[in-house]
Amino acid sequence: MRISAKAELQEVADKFQNQLRKYLEENADAENNSPLKERLEKASNYFNEKLEINIVIPLTAADLDIDNKTVKKQLKRTIENLLIETETKLAGFEVCKSGFNVKALLNEQAKASLDTKSAKAKAKKAKPIQDLENIPHPELYKTLRAWRYEKSSESGIPAYMIFSQKALIELVNYLPVDLKSLQLINGLGAKKIEHYGADILQIIQLYCDSNDIERGLIPLKENPKKEKKPREDTKKVSFEMFQSGKTMEEIAKERALSKNTIESHLAHFVKLGELEVTTFLEEAKLKKITAYFEKMENKSFGEAKAHFGDEVSYGELRMGLSYLESLQKE
């Protein structure tokens, strides 16, 4: 949004809030407050137009052709969420244009939010055009481009906000026949189709009729399912690194994990009998730890540490208990 537009909206919004407070002080029953309803009607028309021009059209025209996939994904999600919120606001404005009713307002806003999310989940789009150089139907291309420029001049907005170059190329390649097929064109959302769809279809129809061109189905974009990588067994990774000769400290540093985590990984394999507990514990200390846990019903490391104090570490307690559990499994 341009700074001037933002400043204008903020100024109008501040004045509007002050007026609302004044009207409500005079009559708190908003649904039966005639001056308030009249003011809401005017405000709804104003803010509806401003949201369309400054938010909906620029966002739906935004080119997210970014190399960084993570940034692109985050931007796309942010724009989608903002558009959902905007559609909800627009639905509220539509209700207020013909009067003010709390129930109707909430119902329409809820419906708009659900409809937008549902459309987002179910949306199908045309297969993107790979060859952007060899454009079919050059006459139609020129006609649509000229029409786009004319509309942008009338509206005082850049041509790409009417529809993008990619959308223009898809239009002349796929030649949509109706509003339903127009929705498949990448970059043409519901609002753009509402504003410009009829004109676009009329131009394409006239061109096809004049040149006796038959139109077929639009190929859809394929969304191959990503194969889920098998989840890495993190304990096994630590085990294999330890078996290769690395110390717990080295494994922790290389894997960006704490030493305690690595100890718990290796204790798992002590319990399975795949690692010798004496690799980590002296025989005498092992006997003390196992003797303690054998007589304790509650195998709490906290209580065990309090019992042994600094004589035994938490890691040694874990190894000792794992060894004891391995014996009990036999």
What report would you give on this structure?
- InterPro entries: Helicase_HTH, HRDC-like_sf, HRDC_dom, HRDC_dom_sf.
- Residues 6-33 form a coiled coil.
- Keywords: Coiled coil.
- The protein is mainly α and 330 residues long.
- The chain has 3 domains: 3-122, no CATH class; 138-210, HRDC domain (DNA polymerase, domain 1); 234-329, Orthogonal Bundle (Arc Repressor Mutant, subunit A), CATH 1.10.10.1390.
- It has helices at residues 3-26, 34-61, 69-96, 102-122, 138-155, 165-174, 179-182, 190-210, 234-243, 248-255, 259-271, 283-295, 301-308, 314-329.
- It starts with a helix and ends with a helix.
- Residues 118-122 have low confidence and may be disordered.
Largest sheet: none
Rg from alpha-carbon coordinates: 33 Å
What structural class should be given to the helix and strand makeup? mainly alpha
In N-to-C order, the SSE pattern is HHHHHHHHHHHHHH
What secondary-structure arrangement, pairings included, does this model have?
Elements: H1 3-26, H2 34-61, H3 69-96, H4 102-122, H5 138-155, H6 165-174, H7 179-182, H8 190-210, H9 234-243, H10 248-255, H11 259-271, H12 283-295, H13 301-308, H14 314-329
Helix pairs in contact: 1-2, 2-3, 3-4, 5-6, 5-8, 9-11, 10-11, 11-14, 12-14
Q: Keyphrases for this structure?
A:
330 residues; mainly alpha; Arc Repressor Mutant, subunit A; 3 domains; 14 helices; elongated
Short description:
By secondary structure, the chain is an all-alpha fold. It has 14 helices and no strands.
